[in-house]
Structure formats: structure tokens, C-alpha cells
Amino acid sequence: MSMSFDLGEGSVRVEFDEGLYPRDAIYGAAYVFIDRCYVHLDRVADKRIQVSLKAKKPGVDSQALAGEFQNELLGQAWRQKIVEDNRQFVETITARALGGAAGPPGLDELLSMDIGEETAFDDPLGIAMSWEEKYKKKGKTSDAKSEGEAAANTETSGGEAS
Amino acid sequence: MTQLFTEVGQAAKAPSGLVPFRFREVGGDYLLSNFLGDWVFVTKDEMRSLARGELQTGTPLHDKLASKNFLRDSIDAAKAAERIAHKKRFLNYGPNLHIAVVTLRCNETCVYCHASRANMDAVHTDMTPEIGEKVVDLMLQSTSPAVTLEFQGGEPLVNFPVMKHMIEYALARNRAYGKELEFTMVSNLAMMDEEKLAYLIDRKVQICTSIDGPEHIHTKQRKLVGGNSHREAVKWIERINKAYIDIGLDPTLYHVEALLTTTREALKLPREIVDTYVSLGCRAIFLRPVDPFGFAGRTAQIVEYDRSAYNEFYRTAVEHILDLNRKGEQVLERYASIFLTKILGDEEPNFLDIRSPSGSGIGALAYNYDGKIFTSDEGRMMYETGDPAFQIGDVFSSNYRALMKHETIRALVMASIRDTQPDCVNCAYAPYCGVQPEHSYRTQGTIFGRMRESTTCAVHKGIQDFLFGKLRENDPKTTEILRRWTTVRARTHFIQASSAS
Ligand code: SF4
Fold this sequence. Notes:
By secondary structure, chain A is an alpha+beta fold. Chain A is 49% helix and 19% strand.
């Protein structure tokens, strides 16, 4: 049985095969209900996922709730598939939209950067490091991780500079 | 549609050489559209033969498809790329519309109020001059070469001194930036006086108001304590239009713009509403359905209705507008003009809610009286009714680039690309369409939306069905009128002289 329902008073438990829907689609579908329902996700058996929706207000038709969830799940799964198939297209449009809107860093932004005694000599990109210093440890897991973190921090602090 | 494919059954196969296309049955024929936004009508028989994989060179169907870029071999790739870049050029720039809510106070009470108004004594909801300056500073940092500062409320005339201060400050600051700067004010006009008007005319502030239709419906829906909201609005529309004539402006181009909010009451009066607008000298009528934001969400039972009823209203009203055009009256419907501009040419009118991706954040920003910044005015209204999902910063601590790179904006961009949405991905109208993700979130709890159940989609489909139905009929007079509605006449008077060095 791929999908089963347990209807209660203003509540529904939907159980289905984990392999049937991508996990993000399940989260996405469940999320849509959080303003109206208390939502709980659980793995009830091997490869079986259970989603419980309990209406916050009385008088909700549980049958309709179950149907709505099913449709939402299908919609989310399909949307993901479409986005996957068009990933490059979406990324190009998004990058162009955000890049065009943000523009290059301007004088105002450079001036507003936090360059004080302590931060003036921070070098998150490793520009001031020698080639050897920067790359000699590459390949070791711990250092690869710290490089990744440095890159992520640069992005974040760039975004937060104000 | 499914009928046709059931008939063709197992014999179905795509003819070689066709580019991917979407289709929709309109008026007994099939409308085909492609990724370039080109479209063509084919008959049912022609569609049947396409579904069987039959497409002979030299046939009228082959020629028709070739002339509209439906055949791979006949497409000029360089030209196609150029066309797409031209249509999406709005992506090169950031927000051009900056909505400043200078107060929440309002002297009128409306049944559908979108703005989450405050009473006249709620002076703490007035924007301060300092916040106003910060709004202007952020606006001028936009990468858009043209920016519009739109004053809204509440009723912006309630906080006129701060509005004036922002205008003066923006004019002074823009000397360094040299942007094409415009000012707009959305007002119910009831607090207008000659002194304020003289200032607004002198500073070239465009004025936009609301008219709900004939007097009896307007006054019923918009209550003005101790006065008649309709009479005040009409009196000032006439006065302002006269002021434009007095300074030598062409009244067909320069006049007060008025907006309609179509309520359940209004649905009964399509022709009367159009006539009211025409009698006020309006050349454009925007038949907007009621919004679910702000207080309208709470008063939905009074003002809401089924979208099929709206579509019926829209058709009757626009048929009436077309009739008036045939008799020589120059008046258009705004939705029609937005869609037709994209359908009949490669121009993008840049109407922020009907483009893909939408203008949320990357096309517009809304600044609340307290300095909080939102991806749109609708996002701001949602904050006022308790949901801060669309707040991306505030004027005190946010910088421009950080705002534009905010994760909420990124999500809204991705959610509003039509080509990656279920339903839209198969919809023949996707090349011309757009949906505001805040609307989907408000009505369906998800920024991605479920178009099948979306009231916006129902309206957009209804309008495009109507327009394509008209284009299919191919009546030369009607087509010429529809084409004329896509002509843009720039209102250059309202652009502030720039003196950047
Ligand atoms: S919103 Fe509706 S009308 Fe517009 S493209 Fe999507 S499905 Fe089509």
C-alpha cells in the first residue's frame, strides 16, 4: 500500500512510502499547512513517512485536509522536478536579477565597511598569503573544511556589512 | 483539448523540427505560443495533424509556423537571443519604485482598506523627517537609472510636511546622482487645498486617486467623516486637471490617474463604472479585483466574490470600452494594455506584479512609516496585520546591497519565475504572465503558489482568454484599437530635471 490515511476529528494522518516523494517536497507540502494546523512528521517504519495534520480551529473537514495535502505534495514534487530540469535557467535568471539589482559595491558601501584596528589586517580570502601557505595543506580534510568555512564567512560578512 | 488527444490516441507523435510550444483552446481554435512569446492560431484540424506528427513543407500550416518561429530551422538564433535579452532587460536594474508610507493615519474608512489605516489621532504612525531622508538615501542608491518615489499612507496628505521635506531632500541629493527622478502621490484628495496643490504642481508630483464608480457606490464604500468622499475626489480631479491645462500641458496625457477597486457591489455596474471614469477625463481604467491584503482579508465576506463573476464583469466592461473607442473616445483598460504590450510586441511594460520574475524587492521596495523595509507594499501590509515574512531590513541599519542580496528576495525571485511553476510551465500564457509571490503566500500559504486555485491566475487567464479571443476574431477595427493601447506616450513633464555632474 503506497499511501494510507487515518482520518480523525479535524485531523489526518497520512502515511506513505519515503521513496515516492523527495524529502524537500514533503517538507514543502507540510509547511504550507503550518498556519492552519499543527504539523508533525515521523518515520513510522522502514521507508515509511507519516505526516500528521491537526487543525488549530474546530470544524475542519479532515477528508478535505487529506486531499489538500495530497495535492500539495504532488505539486511540490512536480515543481521540484521542473526546477531540477531547469536548474541552469533558474540560476541564470536569479543571478542576473540579483546581480542587476545589487550592482557592484559602490563608494558608500566601501566607506561603510568595518575597517578598524582589529579588522584592518583580516585576510579572509588569503590574498596576502604566499602560494605555499595557501595551498600546501590542501587535501587534508580538516583544512579543506576550514577553507570552506572561510569562503562562507566571506560571503556572509560581505552580506552583512553595513 | 484532452478530447483531441484521446481521438488521436496511439497515433500521437510530435512532428520533427518543431520548437517546444504550449497550447490552449481559445474560441474553437488552438493558440500556440513559444519561448520567444510568438503566437499563432491553428484550427482543430491543423492541431490534429500536428498531433499525428504530420507537417508538410509548402503547406499553409508549415508557412504559418515558420513565420512565427515555431520551426527550429527558421529561427535566427542571434536574433532570438537579442529579443529575449531585450524583454528581460529589467533584470539589469534594481528597484525603480520606492513606496514611502508617510503615515498610517487616514481620514476615510474604506470597506476594503489595503493599507491597514490608523485613526487620525495616531500621530505616532507619522514618518519622521529623519526616516524620510534615509528612505531617499537608499532609493538613490538603486542601480536603476530611473526612480520613482511614491507617497502612500494611510492618507499621505495627513503628513504633508514630511512629504514636502522628502521631495526637497530628494531633489537636492539627486544633484549628485543624476537619476531620472519622479514623484507620485496616492491620495483620496479629501485633505487637498489650494496651497498644497500649488506645491504639488510646482514640484511635478503626479497625483493618483481612487474612484469606486458612481457616487452612490463610492460613498457607500469609502466613508469620509463629515463629508462626501466622492464629491471631494471629483472636485479635486477637475481642479487638478484644470491646473495642468493652465500650465500648458496636453490634457489627453496629463490628468489625474484614478484607480478602481472592484468590489462585489461594483460587479453589478461594469458600464456605469467605465462611464464614470470617462466623464472624469480618465484615459485609462484599471479594473483591479479586490486584494486580500490588509483589512480586505477581514472584510472578505463583504467585498470578495468568485473570480468567474469578475471575469464576466471584466469582459462586459472592456467590450463597453471597445465600443467607446469605436465611437472615437480614447480610453483603455490597464490590464489589457499590459498584456497586449507583451503579446503584440517585444516590449516589457515592467508592471511589477505581471512579469517573470516579479518585481518584489528587485523592482520595488516599500518603506513603512517607522523605517522598516519590505519587498513590496503588500509585504508591508502583511506586517501591519501581524506577519513580518517580507521585512528585509530597516533604514537605520540596512545597506542597499545587503537588501538586494537578502535571502527573502532570492526566494521571491525564484518563486516568481513562471517557467518553473507547475501549471504555468504548461500554460500558453506563460510568456506574458507574472504573479506576485506575496499574493500566493497570503492566499495559499506558499510563495510558490498553486495556480490552479489562485485567484490571480484565474484573473490573468480570464483576461488573456478574452484578449486572445479578440485577436483570433481578427476584426481590423478592434485589432487596431488593441494595438493602439500598447502605444506608450511618455509623460516627460513629470521627470525632474537632472543636474548631475
Ligand atoms: S499564472 Fe496562470 S495564466 Fe499566468 S502563466 Fe501561470 S497558469 Fe498561466
